[in-house]
Design a protein that fits this description.
By secondary structure, the protein is mainly beta. Helices cover 9% and strands 59% of the residues. β3 and β4 form a beta hairpin. It starts with 6 loop residues before the first strand and ends in a 12-residue tail after the last strand.
């Protein structure tokens, strides 16, 4: 049976990328993905947001660290990774998005200097 593990997301960074160096250089950051607007029983609009943790490795991690900042919009292509571990006697698990390709959607920051 064939398998496919691929996600495409458009969202905004919830924090600046955090660089980590262990055996491999990687960076991680939060991503907020809007899931649409709905109305509650009082006809008030309510926005639904999904918060995800993203990790990027090697060269992509370096690019993210250099150019991405909190609030920037990105289009991300990647895969889901599920981790399980035990910490202080409690079982833990986490679903993370491993970035494979990122496109920057926010315009680059303009310089404060005006060319003469």
């Amino acid at each position: 049976m064939p398998n496919l593990n691929k996600v495409f997301l458009i969202g905004n960074l919830t924090n600046d990328p955090i660089k980590t160096e262990a055996d491999t250089t990687y960076t991680r950051f939060g991503l907020a993905v809007n899931q649409g607007v709905s109305k509650d029983d009082k006809d008030d609009k309510k926005e639904h947001v999904c918060f995800l943790e993203v990790v990027a490795f090697s060269r992509l991690a370096e690019v993210c660290q250099k150019y991405l900042k909190k609030g920037k919009s990105i289009f991300l292509e990647g895969r889901l990774h599920h981790r399980k571990w035990e910490q202080q006697g409690q079982k833990r698990n986490k679903l993370t998005v491993v970035a494979q390709n990122i496109q920057f959607l926010s315009p680059p920051k303009q310089s404060d200097e005006n060319p003469s």
